[in-house]
Amino acid sequence: MLCEKCQKRPAAVHMTKIVNGNKTETHLCEVCAQVDNSVSFGLDPKWMLQSIFAELFNTPHTENDPSSDAGVKPNRCEKCGFTDAQFSQVGRLGCPTCYDVFENKLDPVLRRIHGNPRHTGKIPKRTGGTIELRREIEELKRELQAAITSEEYEKAAEVRDKIRGLENKLG
Q: What is the 3-state secondary structure (H, E, C) of 66-78?
């Protein structure tokens, strides 16, 4: 297929636009695609990433504007000096200590993205038995706390016994 604009080179860029239900396809060569402004989507990946993290933190995105945080003292990691503003811009943390420093900001973000602030991925079948038991014990301990808080002592005793049984399996 040849370029629709110059009719000389093979089309390498294929665009499909759908506007108000009307679909139009355009096939351009690399040269014409670079020259044609309609191919430029105006998307800067760096800006998009920063906007995504700013939205996750519910903070307005301002590019390198220190006055935007006027009067607000940012959280700062004592170990690496990373700030929450840097995390909002970059999208990753500076060191393992940052996870503790920014825990209050990370939990809601992780819940929104993954549905859970803890990793609940796959567990290896051969070596994952103890991991599975520990997770179940942790879940039961949370259930035990909830039962005690709501003064359901019979249920709490049952959960406590389940925890003891699982802990005995762990050894």
A: HHHHCCCCCCECC
Give 83-151 as a DSSP string. BHHHHHHHSS-SSHHHHHHTHHHHHHHHHHHHSSSS------TTT-HHHHHHHHHHHHHHHHHHHHHTT
pLDDT digits (tens, 9 = 90+) for 96-134: 888 888 888 888 877 777 777 776 777 777 777 788 888
- Would residue 151 be called left, alpha or beta, if left means φ above 0 and alpha means ψ between -120 and 50 degrees? left
Of all helices (H) and strands (E), which one includes residue 34? helix 30-35
pTM of the model: 0.38
